[in-house]
Amino acid sequence: MHFFKVATPIVMLAAAAAVSGCAGRAPAPVSVVQPQDRYMDCAAITIEVQANNAKVQQLASDKGLKVAQNVAAGVAGLVVPIIWFGMDFQGTADTEIQALQARQQYLGALAEQRRCGDNTGEPDKAIAEPSKRPKAKPKTVSSLPPAAAAAAPPATEQK
Description:
Elements: H1 2-20, H2 42-77, H3 92-113, H4 146-151
Helix pairs in contact: 2-3
């Protein structure tokens, strides 16, 4: 019986270590400013923004799955408490999403600095042009005195 008193905590500790290894991965946030940024043109900025948007969507999906996994582990841990060691409290998805959002803001500022979207032939925004009014006809000024101007024939305009 003495063997089981010593072996039980060791087995539980080993199981906890094994289960906690499945708890999740460590966050790997992206750097806001990267060395290749100085060489990026508008097309490269657009491509990276689109890739980052896809990555944020994937991380949001992963975050939802991780929350569901933690809820399931929490409920199952009421029956078998060792399962609680398998819960993920690192917030990997949140950390990486925040880093990607900061990168997106930086890329937006970089695109604005490089005037991306100006004169590309593609409309970035629907801008209503002001309606063109016909130009008013210039009034003819006569150097004749008022009495002579009344007697003179009206001037014809040439276009």
